[in-house]
């Protein structure tokens, strides 16, 4: 029998916490409510959220950084023209860094197309690029002879691998959850605005009647007169 009140209290506590944000929205006056709706609509008109824009900038940084390292590697190993012809025209899977550069280009094109142009809200595109990058780099490190070519034999594969997984983490833990939270807030605000529109406007001061204030002793005098009338009639 004692468990029933505890269960009822737990249920009430859960319902109160689940509707806390909705109560907060309803407690806002109409002016603030409309301001929030306009701010959310302004974000929608921008077309892309701030956190998604940051993600796209990081994807661009990934491509530029890998390209910069590859160009430095070309210069270190005998000049850009000679090494470029050796790695691109005479491509060799076991000794060339050109495929790591192409892998960065692949990540850039897929992620920008998916999350900047198409504005996807799913993780399948980043999962594809990260899986392809990880599998290719692992195979290249195991089969190739990059480790015999100096520091760049370690740097380019490791940096490409790390950047790909940072992109995955950023999208999965920052971009998608934050956008989903903003969308839920927009739905709550819109629901609150619709309910606010159904509520009639507040009563004006002219619709209330307040009688004039009476003196403190007048009420007591009237009570005495009412009590004396029956005595006088007798």
Structural description of this entry:
With 234 residues, this protein is mainly α. The chain is 78% helix and 0% strand. The chain contains 9 helices and no strands. Helix 2 (20-26) packs across helix 8 (152-198). The protein is elongated, with a radius of gyration of 36 Å. The relative contact order is 0.11. The model is unreliable at 1-20 and 202-209 (pLDDT under 50). Residues 10-20 have a biased composition (Polar residues). The chain crosses the membrane at residues 55-76, 96-116, 123-142, 148-166.
Summarize the structure.
It is found in: Late endosome membrane. With 234 residues, this protein is mainly α. It contains nine helices and no strands.
Task: Provide the descriptors you would attach to this structure in a database record.
234 residues; mainly alpha; elongated; disordered N terminus
Topology at a glance:
Elements: H1 3-18, H2 20-26, H3 30-46, H4 50-76, H5 80-89, H6 98-117, H7 124-143, H8 152-198, H9 216-233
Main sheet properties:
none
Give the tally of β-strands: 0
Q: What amount of the residues lies in strands?
A: under 5%
Distance between the termini: 65 Å
What structural class do you assign from the helix and strand content? mainly alpha
Order of helices and strands: HHHHHHHHH
Helix content: over 70%
Tally of helical runs: 9
What is the global morphology?
Answer: elongated
Overall mean pLDDT: 76
Radius of gyration (Å): 36 Å
Biased composition (Basic and acidic residues): 224-234
Transmembrane segments: 55-76, 96-116, 123-142, 148-166
Membrane topology: Multi-pass membrane protein
Pfam family, one: MENTAL
């Amino acid at each position: 029998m004692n468990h029933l009140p505890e269960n009822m209290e737990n249920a009430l506590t859960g319902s109160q916490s689940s509707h806390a944000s909705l109560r907060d929205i309803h407690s806002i006056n109409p002016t603030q409510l409309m301001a929030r709706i306009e701010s959310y609509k302004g974000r929608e008109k921008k077309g892309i959220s701030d956190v998604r824009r940051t993600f796209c900038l990081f994807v661009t940084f990934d491509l530029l950084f890998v390209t910069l390292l590859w160009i430095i590697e070309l210069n270190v190993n005998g000049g850009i023209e000679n090494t470029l012809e050796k790695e691109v025209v005479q491509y060799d899977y076991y000794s060339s860094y050109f495929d790591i550069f192409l892998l960065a280009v692949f990540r850039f094109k897929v992620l920008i197309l998916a999350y900047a142009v198409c504005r996807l809200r799913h993780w399948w595109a980043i999962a594809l690029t990260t899986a392809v990058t990880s599998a290719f780099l692992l195979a290249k490190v195991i089969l190739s002879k990059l480790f015999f070519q100096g520091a760049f034999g370690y740097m380019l594969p490791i940096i490409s691998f790390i950047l790909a997984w940072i992109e995955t983490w950023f999208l999965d833990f920052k971009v998608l959850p934050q956008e989903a939270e903003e969308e839920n807030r927009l739905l709550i605000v819109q629901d609150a605005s619709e309910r606010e529109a159904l509520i009639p406007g507040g009563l004006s001061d002219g619709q209330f009647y307040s009688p004039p204030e009476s003196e403190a002793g007048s009420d007591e005098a009237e009570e005495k007169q009412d009590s004396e009338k029956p005595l006088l009639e007798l």
